[in-house]
Amino acid sequence: MNGQEFRCHPSIIIAKSWHVLVVTVLVLLGELPEVLLDGDGSLETDLPIAALLIVAAVLAVLAVYIISRFFAWRRTYVSIADGNLLYDKRTVIFQRKVNVRLSRISAVNLQKGIADRIFGTFTLKLDIDSSVTAEKTDFHLVFKEDFARAFAAQIMDAKQAAITGESPSGA
To answer: What pLDDT, on the 0 to 100 scale, is given for residue 131?
Structure first.
């Protein structure tokens, strides 16, 4: 794991997109009754083209969003090297590189939400010793269970080594 680049589990795309899916369903449920019903409240016999256009437009927006999340996932890498966590997101428009000493990570939390249970993954939440980001989690990483536990253990070993002045057991 040391020095090797790796990606989060692909289920992170779904985990970060569920809210868009819910909004899409709500928009469709809100707009379609107006289009499908006559003025007197009875169902129209032929499906109006407006209904098809609404559904197509909403599904197109959803598809664009999910495709953009896929490409962001595809170009985001995490690695551990020389006692540092390296987070590198190289999208077409933006590039974000974060380099954090493992000893500065204040909290390592493993969480298993609904999407994690479905895909057999864990969400690893990392907080850094920083007053600027104290109100939110700094990193959300999703990995398969065994990898998430090994990753968390390596971070905790590095943190303990920084406190005691010893070299980490994984090094």
So the answer is: 59
In 3D space, the residue among 8, 137, 157, 162 whose CA is nearest the CA of residue 79 turns out to be 8
Total count of residues recorded for the chain: 171
Provide the greatest CA pair distance for the chain. Answer: 78
Mean pLDDT, consecutive 10-residue segments, the chain of 171 residues? 82 83 79 64 64 80 89 89 85 84 86 89 87 72 92 83 67 48
Residue whose token pair is 């298993």: 112
Contact 118, 96 (CB under 8 A): no
**In sequence order, which residues have a C-beta less than 8 Å from that of residue 46 and are 6 or more positions away?**
none
Helix orientation angle between 49-74 and 18-36, rounded to the nearest 10 degrees: 170
CB 161 within 8 A of CB 168: yes
